[in-house]
Specification:
four-stranded mixed beta sheet; Immunoglobulin-like
Length: about 100
Amino acid sequence: MAEEEKRVIVPRIDVTHNENNSGLQISVNLAGAPKDTVEVEMGKEGFCVKAEAEDFRYETCFMLAHRVKSQEARAKLESGLLNIEVPFEEMMRGHRVIIE
């Protein structure tokens, strides 16, 4: 008998700047997925995450608003929450827009 295809779920993702505005903190909810099933591919402009849980699998790709140093990304899975820290390729400098 062929193995049944698992249902695919897109995990919730939260992206924020870190405290000193030098990079991003990314949180991906992977509840139910063991660490040994989690795969992260980080690029300069985005990332992809895959993970397997018992009855379903997580799968998504996400584009970032700022270029990052993908080779310096660090990831940790705790209690079903994957936390990724990655520095910006360049420090963020912009022009403040006056709101009328």
